[in-house]
Structure formats: C-alpha cells, structure tokens
Write a structure and sequence with these properties.
The protein is an alpha/beta fold and 328 residues long. The protein has two domains: 143 residues, Alpha-Beta Complex (Conserved hypothetical protein from pyrococcus furiosus pfu- 392566-001, ParB domain); 97 residues, no CATH class. It is 40% helix and 17% strand. It has ten helices and eight strands. A five-stranded mixed β-sheet has the order 1-2-5-3-4. Strands 6-7-8 form a three-stranded mixed β-sheet, with helices on one face. Strand 3 and strand 4 form a beta hairpin. The longest helix is centred in the last third of the chain and has 29 residues. The termini are far apart.
Length: 328
C-alpha cells in the first residue's frame, strides 16, 4: 500500500462536496505522494481521462501557484482516484492508485513538490460509469469547465464502446445531467460528435467546417468572405438568423474593394409550423427587406445630405474619471 487513510480529524477539514454520479461510489479519502499515482499516459493523447481531449497547461500553472501559496485547498473539488488490484506495473514501478479525475492537479502537485495530495477513492460499476463520472466531475465552475470538445470526445467514446446508439436522442440523454456548461456548448459538442460518428439525421444542419469541406468537394463556390476568382465576387455562408450581419459584411466588403458578393444560405431545423421551404423563403424575404431598407436610406441621404442615424453618445464606463452620465 502506497498511501495512508485520513484520520477523522483530517477528514473534517474537507468541505468540498462529493460528486454524485450513477454507478460511482465514494469509498474513502487518502493522502498519497503524487509520484505514487498512476496516470494512463498512453491513453487519449497523454491523458488519464477519456473525457478530457487535451491538457490545458495554463490551468496546470494556475493550480501549481495555488499549491505553492496555499497548499491544497480542501473546499475545492478533491482529485479522484481508484484502487487497482492487481498492481499496475510500468518501467519497474508498481502502482495501486490510478487517476480518474486528477491529471491537471497531479501535474501541478508534482511541479509544486507537494509532499502529499489528498484524493477521494471511488469505485465504478463499469467503464461507462467511470467515463460519465469524469464528464460530470469536469462540469464544474470556474476552474476548467467542460468544453464542447470534452462532450464530443465523450460521446464518440460512448458510441464506439456501444454504450449508446449512434443517434441524436441517445447522445442528448447521455449528457443530460451536465448542467454547468452553456447550452450552446453542449449542443455544439453533440453536433460535432454526430458529424464525426456519421450519425444519420432527417435534416442536416451545417457547421462552418462542414460547409467549407462540402463545397470544396462538391462545387466551385467559396465562403467565409473569401474571394471567388472565377466569379470575381466574395462568397459568404449565411445561416438563418444571421442575414443582417452578412448583409452588412457584403456592404463593407464592396465599399473596401468594389467587388460584389454572393450568399450560400442554410436554415435551421424545420418544424411542424415551418417547413424547410418556409424557412428558405423567409431568408429570401429578409434579404429583400434589407435591400428595400437600403433604398429608403439612399432616398433620405439624397434629399437630406445625411444618414438617418447618428452617434448620440456613450454609456458611462470609465470609473477612473468618475463617469456617471452619457458621454457626448
């Protein structure tokens, strides 16, 4: 045994809540030298955690500085490990403690020469329970919250392992208990996993990376505000709801270069109330409305010699000079 169990008095100093996740079972708190924790560095690009796609060394450095100044703060999430029996042996060294949710803090503890790291020992019903625990344990604020890459990586593992079917509803259910990341982050992770896993959908919604790849292989159009030398115009991909932004981009690009633009459009998922044809027509109508508005502005300018808008002022923001009113 390469660790010691905490006394009741030592455990009373731990105020960090235990992580509750289905199939994960807290066992005890231990104190262990960081060097005696086995990190599965050969898995997923040097990480012990199947959920985390890569290390964030800025986070490691921040934790290291905290360890150097304060030691291990026991109101913050406690690193999670599991016992391995029989021992893991690598390079002649035997380990019986394996990292589960610890890698950034493990690196920081070693670099800070922390003599002991207090860890929470858990058992898991199976690998799926462990991976879901890792995802939930990463779903914390504010240290290094779960990212869309984390969610995508987890879902790809889940599909590959056969824990879920390769469909959107199963993916959404698998990450349904992730609460602290933004909804857009979760949705982006799900969409990226669906793309990588080739998930079938009745209606395909596009991401900019997919659009560029598809156009490159299936047409001679360009997007992203790039120059289409064949047509001598700039190409833009426009998602439903962003017509105003790209209309403005086209105006500014024309003012800068004298070159026209074209739009390659795509809609959001249709609904019972709005079919895909309805949504496409709505986008066309939006562009026509913007063009009509521009004509009205031209008429006003030709008559009045000015535009029908101006900058009235700025909200007070600079506290160094005690701004409290609209700045003209």
């Amino acid at each position: 045994m390469f660790y010691r169990e905490l006394t009741a008095e030592e455990q009373s100093n731990i105020t960090a809540p235990k992580i509750q996740s289905k199939g994960a079972h807290f066992q005890k708190y231990i104190a262990i030298q960081p060097e005696n924790i086995y990190i599965r560095k050969n898995e997923r690009g040097g990480n012990n955690n199947l959920v985390r796609k890569q290390m964030n060394y800025g986070v490691c450095n921040a934790i290291k500085e905290s360890y150097l100044q304060n030691g291990q703060l026991l109101h913050l999430p406690i690193p999670v490990v599991k016992e391995k029996n029989p021992f893991v042996t690598t390079d002649g060294t035997r380990y019986n403690i394996v990292g589960v949710d610890i890698h950034h803090r493990h690196v920081a503890a070693i670099e800070a020469d922390l003599p002991e790291l207090i860890c929470a020992v858990y058992t898991f019903d199976d690998e799926q329970a462990e991976v879901k625990f890792q995802l939930k344990s990463n779903d914390q604020a504010p240290a290094n919250p779960v990212s869309h890459e984390d969610i995508c990586n987890t879902l790809c593992v889940a599909v590959q392992r056969g824990w879920i079917q390769n469909n959107e509803s199963d993916m959404k259910a698998f990450v349904s208990d992730i609460k602290h990341c933004h909804g857009n982050t979760k949705n982006k992770g799900i969409k990226e996993a669906m793309r990588l896993c080739g998930t079938y959908v009745d209606f395909h919604t596009w991401q900019i990376e997919d659009i560029k790849s598809w156009l490159k292989n299936n047409s001679d159009y360009v997007v992203g505000g790039s120059m289409d030398n064949q047509r001598d115009k700039y190409g833009w991909s426009v998602k439903e709801g962003y017509e105003n932004e790209f209309f403005t981009n086209a105006i500014r690009r024309f003012a800068d270069t004298g070159k026209e633009s074209y739009f390659i459009c795509h809609t959001k998922t249709p609904s019972e109330k709005e079919t895909v044809l309805d949504r496409r027509e709505k986008m066309n109508t939006t562009f026509l409305s913007l063009e009509n508005s521009l004509k009205i502005v031209f008429d006003f300018y030709s008559k009045e010699g000015r535009f029908p808008w101006h900058v009235e002022g700025f909200l007070p923001q600079d506290n160094t000079i005690s701004e409290t009113v609209i700045v003209k």
